[in-house]
Write a structure and sequence with these properties.
The protein has a domain of 230 residues: Dipeptide-binding Protein, Domain 3 (Dipeptide-binding Protein, domain 3). By secondary structure, it is of the alpha+beta class. The strands form five sheets. The protein has a ten-stranded mixed sheet with strand order 8-9-10-1-11-19-12-18-16-17, sandwiched between helices. Strands 4-5-7-6 form a four-stranded antiparallel sheet, covered by helices on one side. 24% of the residues lie in helices and 21% in strands. It is built from 14 helices and 21 strands.
Length: 560
């Protein structure tokens, strides 16, 4: 969803609408870093290579299925696939392949007498695949049918399963027919089409995993050298090239370096041109001392959390989860790890979602007496250093990603605090592809540290409902890695997604957060600042946490 695995479909469902207004931490390009960066008004020339350093390597290249549900996969795929809608720099939906954003106000969204709705969209006739074939309604309908095909291990079918048909009155007109009214519909209809003429009859669990022979975006996949790099090449037939014949670059190369400190060194030496390093207590000072580049730091859309395994002892015990939560000093984490750059987060939603947000976890603060009290409720007794039951010390297995300084520092602080409160915490840091591809979906942890991205819509239907618990029955496609199941929460999430009454939806969302804080399936920590750092040779760098690192890659160029 670096951030964890938690991408639903491309970048469109992953970014928060109002974060620009929620500038809890804003620092622009500063000091020598800014003055050394390339002139943003310098004339661009076609050609050249940009190298992006990443601390994760994808498990596969198809971001629409379970093995591709990592932030690294999403970043690479973002330049390959254009959606019907995009997200502009202000955080608003904007037309891309579609001619307009469908709304009730413009008549494109209509309620039906049976309690459903229709959403009508028109495709730009110039939209083309990289092989020259037009992008049509058949490709949009194929995306829906592929998502709903139970043979395929898609990340999530939430929202898609409410569509009962996708009608094609003509090649450029798409009519989504919904069996129920669905408030977050834009996150579904904005998704990138799939090339029916390429994929029809292929095994979607495998065909796009190693190689992708087609594109609708500015770049195409050239090759993937495992454990080394992924190379993208310019799409010479890009349908949205414009008068500048975008993209400017010939090649984007993603290189994989698990250690984030090494990535910063490689940026300084020019081995890589762009990095988006995870936040750290010294990051801003390090970038200010970089003499040949620039950086931008913006409020991020990812939020860190402590996730509990609600189906595995000892964290399947609510009293143990609460004891751990009250043993964690979240203010200390933000003060020590991030030096106060961000505040403690008290919800599964970001404060920018003003109407929907409530600080449901605000009273969960470091409290030794409360922590001990919860453990005693479950029959634990303090015996020397640790609480015990049945002669065994209370031990929790903690997992997170290796090579990430921020998460290592958080883990060490957690371990110290839990030990002081009589809880033994064993730390295991794993490669991101193992952690996100195996441990979290299979529930192989007691407590874990990862990040979710906050959606434009306040719905969290892929993360917390009971039917989203990964299992063999759903091909491990759910994202409820907590194994958390509260039937009332699940029903409220469902109802909030189908109500068209905003006041009622706000009320339900508040109740969901309150119930979850009482159940303690997880503990929110903080909203992550997002950093874009680059060398002086790059042109067109423009941080946009809402649109993703490569949101404007078609406009990138290099000085020659």
């Amino acid at each position: 969803m670096g951030p964890g695995r938690m991408s639903i479909s491309r970048r469109l469902a992953a970014y928060a609408l109002a974060l620009i207004a929620a500038a809890i931490m804003v620092s622009g390009c500063g000091g020598s870093a800014d003055t050394a960066a390339a002139d943003p008004d310098a004339p661009k020339q076609h050609g050249g290579l940009v190298t992006i350093g990443m601390d994760q390597e994808p498990a596969c290249l198809n971001e629409k299925i379970q093995c591709g549900s990592m932030a690294a996969t999403t970043m690479i795929a973002a330049s390959l696939w254009d959606g019907l809608l995009d997200i502009d720099a202000e955080g608003n939906y904007a037309p891309k392949i579609a001619t307009d954003v469908p709304t009730k106000e413009n008549g494109s969204v209509k309620d039906t007498p049976d309690g459903g709705m229709t959403v009508t969209m028109h495709l730009k006739p110039e939209a083309r695949w990289s092989d020259g074939r037009p992008i049509t309604c058949d490709d949009v309908a194929f995306r829906w049918s592929t998502t709903m095909d139970e043979r395929w291990q898609v990340v999530s079918r939430k929202g898609w399963e409410l569509i009962k048909d996708v009608e094609c009155p003509d090649a450029q007109t798409v009519v989504f027919v919904w069996a129920e009214r669905y408030a977050p519909y834009l996150g579904i209809v904005s998704a990138a089409p799939l090339p029916k003429h390429v994929l029809d009859g292929k095994d979607f669990n495998k065909y796009f995993n190693e190689a992708i022979p087609i594109s609708s975006g500015p770049f195409m996949l050239k090759k993937w050298n495992r454990a080394v790099d992924v190379q993208l090449k310019r799409n010479p037939e890009y349908w949205d090239a414009g008068k500048d014949e975008r993209p400017w670059l010939d090649t984007i190369r993603y290189v994989f370096v698990a250690d984030t400190n090494t990535l910063k060194i490689q940026l300084r030496t020019g081995e890589v041109d762009i990095i988006s390093p995870p936040p750290d207590s010294t990051l801003k000072e390090e970038l200010e001392g970089f003499p040949r580049g620039g950086y931008q730091i913006e409020p991020g859309i990812y939020w860190e959390q402590i996730a509990f395994n609600n189906a595995k002892a000892p964290t399947n015990d609510i009293n143990v989860r609460k004891a751990i939560a009250y043993s964690i000093d979240r203010d200390q984490i933000t003060d020590v790890v991030l030096k106060g750059q961000v505040e403690r987060l008290d919800s599964t939603l970001l404060p920018a979602k003003k109407e929907y947000y409530i600080p449901a976890w605000k009273d969960v603060k470091y409290d030794t007496k409360k922590a001990a009290g919860y453990l005693e409720k479950s029959g634990y007794k303090r015996n020397g250093q640790y609480f015990e039951k049945g002669g065994k010390p209370l031990t929790v297995q903690f997992k997170s990603t290796a090579g990430n300084d921020l998460r290592l520092k958080v883990a060490q602080l957690l371990q110290q605090r839990l030990k002081a409160n009589g809880i033994k915490m064993d730390i295991a840091l794993e490669p991101p592809n193992v952690f996100f591809g195996q441990s979290t979906p299979n529930g192989a942890f007691g407590m874990a540290l990862w990040a979710w991205s906050s959606g434009i819509d306040p719905s969290q239907e892929t993360m917390f409902p009971c039917d989203q618990i990964p299992s063999e029955a759903n091909d491990f496609s759910g994202q409820n890695n907590y194994r958390y199941c509260n039937e009332k929460v699940s029903e409220l999430i469902k109802q909030a997604n189908v109500t068209t009454d905003q006041a009622e939806r706000i009320r339900m969302t508040h109740e969901i957060q309150t119930l979850m804080a009482a159940d303690m399936p997880m503990l929110p920590l903080f909203q992550r600042p997002e950093t874009l750092a680059y060398t002086e040779r790059t042109l067109g760098m423009d941080s946009n946490p809402l649109g993703g690192l490569v949101w404007n890659a078609a406009d990138w160029a290099v000085m020659k």
